[in-house]
Amino acid sequence: MAHLEARPLRVLLAKLGMDTHTVGVTVIAHALREAGMEVIFTGLKQTPAMVAAAAIQEDVDVVGISTLSAGHTRSLPELARLLREAGAGEKLLLAGGVIPEEDVPLLKEAGVDRIFTMGADTRDIVAYLNEWWAEQQAHSA
Amino acid sequence: MDVAAGVLAGTVLAGARAIRWLDDRDPRGAEVLAAVYAHTGQAQVIGITGPPGAGKSTLLNALVAEQRRRGRRVGVIAIDPSSPFTGGAILGDRVRMARHSVDPDVFIRSIGTRGHAGGLSRSAHDACLILDAMGYDIIFVETVGVGQDEIDIVSLAHTTLIVGVPGLGDEVQAVKAGLLETGDLFVINKADREGYEATQRQFELMLHLRAEAAAADAVAWVPPLLRAVATREEGVAEIVDATDEHAHALRADGEFARRSARRERAQALTLAMDAVQRELYEQADPSILAALEARQLDPYAAAELLLANWRQE
User: What is the mean pLDDT of residues B235-246?
Assistant: First the structure.
């Protein structure tokens, strides 16, 4: 009965931008589910405002964004700003997909906590999240 | 953040956090509930259930739009199954409701079943109370795709809407037993599909049988059978007319309050049973279980002893 007390990590996965490539985000969703996390998938062609609203209503711990169609240098900082302004700046903001190395400093400066570029191993993402969650739990205990 | 005050003020951030605490069984959730409970009991809870693939989410999306056209504030609780093995879940009902995500008068929450059978989650009732306290007029609860007897939704909702669909084979299977006897509204979705007439006839027959069985009780509400093509929003206004009529009929003779009361009673008893179950597990005397395994005690005698021990504690 111990599992009744478990507190699963809640992760919102969304795609910003106009592309319709869902393979990457689907693979990650399944990996997170297998790791015991609750994944809320919001679908394609999301705007930063839609993602921020969903993240708050769902009270997720983590917001993971897949972006493959450029525009991320504008949309990701906007999302980070919207979350902060709504009082939800403590959520972990992750991004993955096609993100050139030279954009990374700008995105981190804007509030993206971690960026997984093409070819990132899902096991690394799971491990990173588990570690972060354990830290958060220890912090609040 | 004072979460209870935020819930009563209708603050999304506070409401979302309260539901999280209740879903996680964080003791702070019960504190919030205690502070807001007296302010609940206003919202109409509408359950939507039916077999997987009936188009529940798409229909729900259209129903939310129609409720918004009528000026109501709408809460949505969408339940998807958690993996019994890992506890993880992929909650995807928002995908079909994306158009409502930036509407400040719509609150959508996805919840995993987290080991709860019956088509709902343990926290579905709590989430309804929080949305009710936040001032939403209508609360939709979408269950997981159900089989034949997952009818928890009936005890949670004021109005239960059962969605069928042509072409799933023996459609009757999906709505027989408990669902058929207790649904308040029946909708055949995807009504532009082949097989609609056959499905309609089956539903009509079932409803006819139900009406005959109920005639003696002089039940005032006759469950309507409606058709819809949710992807084109066909039939949706008629469904909302019917759920409005149902709410009106329930309120007119005091049944609305009686259904709410029944739900709160069931919830309190469920919480008490959960606690008893946990205590029984934790206090189970290993020697009794060992005697059971050695066939010195039969299961009934062992159960009596376990209960006697628990009562003593």
Answer: 98
Strands (E), chain B: 44-49, 74-80, 89-91, 106-112, 138-142, 159-164, 185-188, 225-227
Please write down the long-range contacts of A19-24, taking CB distance under 8 Å and 24 or more positions apart: A19/A68, A19/A69, A20/A44, A20/A45, A21/A68, A24/A66, A24/A68, A24/A96, A24/A97
The reply to whether residue A35 touches residue B86, judged by beta carbons under 8 angstroms, is yes
Tell whether A65 is covered by a domain.
no
Q: Could A29 and B90 be called an inter-chain contact, meaning their C-beta atoms sit closer than 8 Å?
A: yes
Question: How do residues A45-62 score in pLDDT, each as one tens digit?
Answer: 899 999 999 999 999 999
In a domain, A125, yes or no: yes
Complex ipTM above 0.85? Answer: yes
Domain that holds residue A85: 17-55+71-140
| Predicted TM-score (pTM) of this structure | 0.92
Task: Classify each residue of B221-234 as buried b or exposed e, where b means 16 or more C-beta atoms within 10 Å of its C-beta.
Answer: eebbbbbbbbeebe
